UniProtKB/TrEMBL annotation:
Coiled coil: none annotated. SMART domains: MoCF_biosynth. This is CinA-like protein. Belongs to the CinA family. CDD domains: cinA. Residues 5-179 form the MoaB/Mog domain.
Amino acid sequence: MPNASICTIGDEILIGQIIDTNSSRFASALNASGIRVTRMLSFGDDRQVIISSLEKELRENDIVIVTGGLGPTKDDITKPALAELSGSRSFREDPVQLGIIHRILESRGLDVLDINAAQAMVPDTCEVIPNRLGTAPVMVFRFTGGRFGHDCTLYSLPGVPFEAEGAIPDVIGDIRRHFRTGDIFHKTIMTYGLAESKLSKMIGAWESALPAGMHLAYLPNPITGVRLRLSIYSGRHEDEDREVEEQLKTLRSIIGDYIYAEEDTTLEAVVGKLLKESGRTLSVAESCTGGMISHLITSVPGSSEYYLGSVTSYANSVKENVLGIPEEIISKYGAVSSECVARMAEGVRRITGSDYSVATSGIAGPGGGTEEKPAGLVWIGLCTPRKTETFNIVFKNDRKRNIERFSASALDILRRGIISDLKV
């Protein structure tokens, strides 16, 4: 099985000016093609650093993917560095890329300047994969065994994310033609409601008993929960399917309802699917989450089929005047209470006529907490056609993370409530 290293070039990455999304997209594509990614690296616009770093990666990997540093300005020095690395003696003009440059610039009403046309000049040691979305081509450098001790290939792509992503199919196609790819199998299990440490303890014996060659990774996220990924890096696909399914049977018996999906998805997508398939509708009343639950729900394509609307009742006056919560409920129990959040859920369900509603009221922090009601406390109300229930959870994170966890917990409680209701 070939292995690969992914490198990004540019000072703007190292100073945090931009986020590197190219590496994650290429890693996903390479893994799906049976190529194991050994590491991801970023280094700045320094010619010697680029050359020495790439030499090391080529010695240790079959494939090296490089993005960035191919612009028309003088500070983009990747191309001359690659020319030196590959032993190039001259540059040549690639006519296909030059034609693309003319088409792109002329379609924008721009003149083709010398600095633009120079993008089509490439070292004579490389092959070219045309970049149809931008001006800098993909350069392919192939090295035989004598240089780095084995045959290896370097692909240099522009750093603009949509251009790099657009070139992925062509690069993967070239890799498949020149390398014997393996079979990497990944199975994703999405869980919510268990901290990573508690989940690890619950499934520790199961994990220890996994067959040789099967690996488990924990990938926690405040909104999606803990993603478990089972990986097998060799074998035949039909065998891997069977082996993983056998292990999943045992896992389901251990953590059961904490599993909300056996694919890479989100709570809001799972809730949406339940509502859509059952023909039910949803509304939301939010206080401490400030509209985040509604945002997550409506981020799912097709959510208009089941989502009716929301009330962001941050102020008590809105809770009273819009949702119809009696003033004495809030004065007696407080806005952050079981009594208040139950009335919030019932109120928004009544206003919208939805089948289900979920509501939140809490203290996101860092201030506003008391000994009785600490910062990080959230009350969640769930109203279904059969009953109203309330739940409370305390998180100990910063304000942003608390709001994320409040929202995700509300979605998980809603998910469980819908499933329970549909079983009746």
